[in-house]
């Protein structure tokens, strides 16, 4: 009996020691996550990983991730260490994919920090210190996202109308500068940030913008313009022909009922063509809802050029355009309709017609 009692006491003592050791390990501080790495960044997702000790890796039950836009002065860290107010994710093997939780916007700078945590029996969390803050920027729309945007734009294009010229309105100072400083050639300028924030051409592709929309009743360019009283007109065939690649780049509105479609015309094999080929959906010149070229069917016939009737087309031509290929004349209408200008205009993020689910 004495031996049994001694064995029992010994087992109880051992069990108590194990329990005490386990409790001590559970209560031991977690090390601060370090060497934060961001990879596989898209317009609405990223993967994140960091270094942890083997002991922390074995016992961590949750990760806390705090994400904020870089421009925010208050990163809004957890107010209470045991009450997470940001994303709480169950611990998984790293790197961990993060998407859909904050509706990330394309081409936007963010700050991110992480904590590791152990959920305790009473429901509270034992947490590490915050890691260092890491900054990163989300990417442009991928081809699949632009295809979604293209599909939406097709529904708004309307029927095709004939046109014969591309045109560009500016103030006299612009054309004076082209003649005196640029040898009479309109040189490509960097695309601004107007339209969809994730469009791959914003701030990256150079070109000269043209319009081609016509008035429904006359079939001619409108008499009014928000860009200036002088209009450069060039025969459509100079910019739209079989030696040109046509791309879809954007679809947006600016809190208005009408929508804009941005198209890119790039001479085949040019620098602009190379840029667009892997970034933008290519359109068939003869068969698309926005801008078409139809070759002559019989000898002596002229090509047919058509534009969409229910959207405003903004056509970016990626090569220089000499003034002597067309003519400059004074328009007869108004030219102070500044509400229609699109320079750095922001897309309406609430419009159900022209937005897709991956950001604005």
UniProtKB/TrEMBL annotation:
InterPro entries with a match to the protein in the record: FN3_sf, Ig-like_fold, PHYHIP/PHYHIPL, PHYIP/PHIPL_C
A GO CC term attached to the entry: cytoplasm
Residue ranges constituting the Phytanoyl-CoA hydroxylase-interacting protein-like C-terminal domain according to the UniProt record: 137-360
Statement: the UniProt record of this protein carries the keyword Ribosomal protein: no
Database matches in Pfam families: PHYHIP_C (PF19281)
Protein keywords: Glycoprotein
Domain of life: Eukaryota
Record carries keyword Phosphoprotein: no
PANTHER family: PHYTANOYL-COA HYDROXYLASE-INTERACTING PROTEIN (PTHR15698:SF9), PROTEIN CBG15099 (PTHR15698)
Protein name according to UniProt: Phytanoyl-CoA hydroxylase-interacting protein-like
Biological classification of the source: Eukaryota, Metazoa, Chordata, Craniata, Vertebrata
Gene name linked to the record: LOC115049230
